[in-house]
Amino acid sequence: MVAFHRQSFLSRKRVVFLVAFAVFMFFALGLNGYCNAAPDDTYMQKQERARILEREIAALEAQLDSKNKEKRELYERIGEIQNKLTEYYLEIERKNKELRNIRESFSVKLRSLYVDGRLSGLLQVIASNDVTDFMTRIDYLMKAASVDVESYEGIRKTLNELKKQRLGLMKEKERLSEVLKSVVTSELEDTLNAKRGELARLAAEIIASEPQFIQGVYPSYNPIQVYTAPDEGLFIGTGQFFSGYSSWYGNEFHGRSTANGEIYDQYGFTCAHRTLPFGTWLRVSFRGRSVIVRVNDRGPFIKGRILDLSRGAAEALGITGVQWVVCEILVPKSR
Question: Domain of 105?
């Protein structure tokens, strides 16, 4: 009897041990699965660092654009001044030519007086019929002698004014050239390139450790083609975000089959992702703009990129090349 009770006690101990072991393994595996599904602290820190870098890059790009705009305006102003200086040079040359013509005309008249003799003009005045005729001839001779002098003085004053204005423009050109030298963008470009390089490396690390999301979409909202931007009011955010570099694809793939068998339409609101289930909806945000797209293809297959947008979605966001975007997984509202 004692032996029976002893054997029964040992059996109960084995059962308790097996149950405890099973519970332990269940929680251990469940916890491990939870940890695999949820992003770790390092992943979240990298995401936050990427967002900070994105803001810093945007600020640096704005500064660089401002400086480049200032440089363009200075170049344009210097070019306008140079064109004006060219006009002044041509006008000054014309005035100098007029002065030379007046001097030559005056020299011809002097030679004519010398050839005719000094008394010919005086004899004509003395031969006047009356006082009125006398005064008229005197006035004519005086005016004839003063016309060349007045023309010469007028042109000379204009020429001096042109030279003065030209000198002012030359000084303004020198001043703007010095200002242009002070607008230095090399240091800013170096900093920007360094930030972009860091962000590219960080994006690659994020992609390498990207959690495998499993949320799909409800079958109640699953059109084959999305030709217009979906209404955000039809979706609920899941709070699951990821970010990285996004590109877009268009013409050469238009009309071809996507990875899920659909015909790719570059003007639709779709995207390609390497791991998200087909039919997953994403809100893609870029510098204050956002658009909702549906995953219907696989890609991108270039290192450092997380998403390939359709041309229509990229144009709606204002993306023309490769840009850093923030994505949130969405689910349609129940009907």
Answer: 70-182
